[in-house]
Amino acid sequence: METHFTGTSYWFEETDLHVTRAIVTADRIALDWVQWGEVGGCVATSQDGVFFEGTYGEGTNGGSPVLNPQSHVEFRLYRAANGEVLLFGLYRAADKTDGGNWLLRLVPVTV
User: By CB distance 3.0 to 4.6 Å, which of 8, 14, 20, 44 could disulfide with 52?
Assistant: First the structure.
């Protein structure tokens, strides 16, 4: 049986946000990044291993990114057969001045 789909197209460009560390499990995503010389991070949790919700923030406290409880992020998690991870979702800044769609491609690394 053939499956049919409909959908939405998004226009994305690569940004200068570089993910320096990402940990992805079935119930939690933790990201650290650097953008414009500033450190940031995100932590999101899931009940079903697909839809994740959490917070993000910029700046550090003792080396760890400071999360802003008013800055919201949500992702859908997609895993590729080669181990890569795609996170597609959105973010909304606490002060409502920034927000939009967010796409992250994560590639496995050996530590």
Answer: 44
Neighbour order of strands in the sheet with 68-79: 18-24, 28-35, 38-46, 51-58, 68-79, 85-92, 99-106
What pLDDT score does 105 carry? 95
Cβ(91)–Cβ(104) below 8 Å: no
Backbone angles phi, psi at 57, to 5 degrees: -170, 175
Mark 14-28 as b/e (b = at least 16 C-beta within 10 Å): eeeeebeebebeeee
Residue in the block written with tokens 């992702």: 75
For 70-88, the pLDDT digits (tens) are 999 999 999 999 999 999 9
